[in-house]
Amino acid sequence: MTINSNIAGVIRQTERLMARIPVAATAALQPVKWEVEAANLAQTILYTLATPAEAQFVPLFIKQITTGVFEGGLSLKMQTPFAPLRNILGQAQAAKGATSNKDLGMGLFDLPIREFEDLILKWVETSEEEGGKRRDARDTGKSDEQIAHLISHIMLSPDMDRSKKGRKAREKLTPHIEEFLKSGQANRLPPATVSLWLQAVLAGWREMVLRRYPAKLKAELAATKGEL
Amino acid sequence: MALISSPVSGLNLEGSALALWNEFLAGYFDGLEHTLGLMTGIQFPQAVLRFQEAPLPQPMEGDLGISVVWVAPSSICTHWDTLTAAEITASGVVNPPLRQQRATAHGSFLFLIRANEAGANANAQKQVADGAALLYALLENSLATEPLSQKGIHKLRPRPPRLAFPGDGSPGTDLNYRLRVLACGAVLRYPVISQNS
What we know:
The structure holds 2 protein chains of 2 kinds.
Chain A: H1 7-28, H2 35-49, H3 58-63, E1 66-70, E2 73-77, H4 88-98, H5 110-125, H6 144-156, H7 158-162, H8 164-186, H9 191-223
Antiparallel strand pairs in A: 1-2
Helix pairs in contact in A: 1-9, 2-9, 4-5, 5-6
Chain B: H1 13-26, E1 33-36, E2 39-43, E3 47-51, E4 64-71, E5 76-82, H2 85-91, E6 99-116, H3 124-139, H4 146-150, E7 153-158, E8 177-192
Parallel strand pairs in B: 3-4
Antiparallel strand pairs in B: 1-2, 4-6, 5-6, 6-8, 7-8
């Protein structure tokens, strides 16, 4: 009686599998294989949660989705599209003070000043009905840029704070600018809703990866079956 | 509770599965007492059911809302099998050969359970927690979900709705509704009638 063993073949096959599985696992986690599915599922979940008034924000969230490789695994990320609420005026005034009243940009302090100047230009360009600046005789003959430059100087220059006339002009302008600033920042979701949306998408993605990863891994292994 | 909706079909996989869910959930979440497996007299809340992106009616006015989102399978496997009499009838094909392909899809469903804090029910968080707990109990009971199984939705594997959303002790007072998410894996099976006699 002859007893034949295929154990050598089994060991060979196992060794090949041990080499192939990590490769297939990495291939199955390539971001390009997940990004469309992740975006589609996130979109479905967010439109499900959104009220008709909130639905306008869904595309902004979808645009925030990024995929990447994270410690050998897959990273799916979606963050809030809304910048943190900030006191743009206060930060710009502080930055201007820190630059010792020089007009030239000073690197770190340059950004808040430029951001404020852009905001003022936007305020000037916006019609009064939509919360923009009310035009008066002093604005006649001036371009939007010239008006915005003058207002920025009044609001930010420390020299204006030292003169009575300057302080008065600043006091008059401040409530209107703050109102415009608030209206621009009002068009956003409450933080709790943002948190809820992000967590709901996270729950959906978790389920998607749990359910689809085995199938994707199997497909990758099947693709290399001839080499095993 | 027998379901009258058509079985899961390859002609409209998503739509047929969601129609079955609609009928099944509507049979329980109607504000009445129901038998759950062998347990009798279980009080279920009334819920508004929605599927995929369909929005819940606003304002919710104290209603419990359950939205079902389909997480599509990444692949569908087929194998040869013998059709049952019910499957032959449902296919609409006259006297097809019994040996046909059967498709199997591993998908899952997300159940988004919501209630409005400002509605008639003052404790929306409890309303949502109770609704999610009952849904979980319903889905894990194989006797209760047998009607779904008979129509092609098998092996339901719900995960407890454990995520902490605003209202579960975390700050979120500016949110006017509460939410829990329950994920449930499922295997969908349906015949692919392709063989002539």
